[in-house]
Amino acid sequence: MITDTAFYRNPYYHTASDTYDTLDYERMAKVVHGVKAAVERLI
Questions:
Q1: Which residues, 6 or more positions from 11, have their beta carbon under 8 angstroms from its beta carbon?
Q2: I want to staple 7 with a disulfide (CB 3.0 to 4.6 A). Which of 1, 12, 13, 22 is the partner?
Q3: In whole angstroms, how far apart are CA 6 and each of 10, 12, 34?
Q4: Nearest to 28 by CA among 11, 8, 9
């Protein structure tokens, strides 16, 4: 986990409605690519 603010972005976070279909996979992919690029610059 990069931040502890998931509940601001996903109203279903840690509720019974927190299911795979409520996640934003495109946004998550962008974050993963951005973090990967940042780490590669540090190496």
A1: none
A2: 13
A3: 6, 9, 18
A4: 9
* In the block, residue with structure tokens 């509720």: 15
Q: Output the pTM of the full model.
A: 0.67
Measured CA to CA in angstroms, residue 27 lies from 16, 23, 35, 43 at distances of: 22, 9, 12, 25
DSSP of 3-30, one letter per residue?
-S-HHHH-TTTTSTT--GGGS-HHHHHH
List pLDDT tens digits, range 1-43. Answer: 667 787 787 888 889 999 999 888 999 999 999 999 999 999 9
